[in-house]
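ok here's the first one, seq then struct tokens
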Amino acid sequence: MVIIGIDPGAGGAICQWDRAFVSVDKCPDNAKNMSSIVLHIKNNSWVNDDGKCVAYMEKVWGRPSNATRAAFHFGENYGRWQGVLESHKIPINYILPNKWIKYWAEEYNVELPKGEENYRARKNKLKELASFKTEIKTTLWNSDAILIAAYGFQIEEEKKNER
């Protein structure tokens, strides 16, 4: 089974995880390019595995501090990802940021800085954790998608072991 991890923000990314890290792409700015990436991943799932894909997408919303236009743009992007995944018949698991972040903090036994004023420090620590999951260079734009996909893989493995 291929796990797709999506950080749905315009500055986010999509990660493909198939037993191990496979690839990560920047979030495209339109549904056509999003669909091309998802179709490529779906095709790879047939070549390398059983054709099954499941997406783990961060469930987020605009913050009160976001400007109206920025919040609207973010919502557009989020909706595009939903539409693209649904059109390819890929089930979506929505995961709150605090859930996958807490999972990796506990897994690596690290204390992540809290509060809005420590946002950048927290993101840098998550980037560091993502670097343990892949050999490619992790960046602020791809680290969340990598950790979301790796989280999805762990959850799917736990489900498989329960059966």
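and now the second one, same deal
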Amino acid sequence: MAEMSSAVGIPVYVRIRETLRDQITGGLLKRGEQLPPEHELAAKFSVSRMTIRESIEDLVNEGLLYRRHGVGTFVAFPHLQRDHTRLTSFFDKAEEEGVVVRAELLSLEVMEAKPPISQALDLPDGSRVIRIKTLRYANNVPITVHEAYVPHKLFAGIVNENLEAQHLWTLFEKCGYKVKRAVQRLEAREADKELAKLMKIKHGAAILFKERTVYADDGTPVEFTYCYNRGDVYSLTVALER
């Protein structure tokens, strides 16, 4: 029988749950690691599969574990929380939380803007924009596909910059445009085949989609973005008052 918490009078499923929790928080079970099948855990703890299922269900509800249909149960990654009461970049917030982040450039092109991109950036249809698509990682886990459009007439030199090593807002400021505010829309979506492949998730998995227009301090729209965030490792905080 596997070793587990031994507090007297505590139900077995709770003791198994706390044993699994200790293994997760202590690093014995790694983030992203798949748990053994229920029948194996039941044999190790000398209990029924129903008891194991009850222990796991509590940890799933807490967010320490997550299930992939037809695959199994995995140790969840810590959620990267974004405070949407303040305008901060993905990189700034992650660094505050001690998360190691990086960006991988997927594509970079100059193209003609069509609605809603041209409308968001206050440009005539057909104006040139730079499309920058990146895959963002947190602790080496692909978490976000970020697709940004910026006016070519303002930031033509960006195409020559290392976009994996610098945040766009830093480059905007170098060009004389300091980011001041943003307007964004959030909605729940499902991952299509491309997103699922890039972020190593199941086709149809939950995605938090964000559409955002960023403005400089003089009111100039400098960036329009489509952002696709993994629902299992990304959450947001909004302060509401009445």
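notes on #2: The first strand starts at residue 65 and ends at 68. The domain at 80-237 is CATH 3.40.1410.10 (Chorismate lyase).
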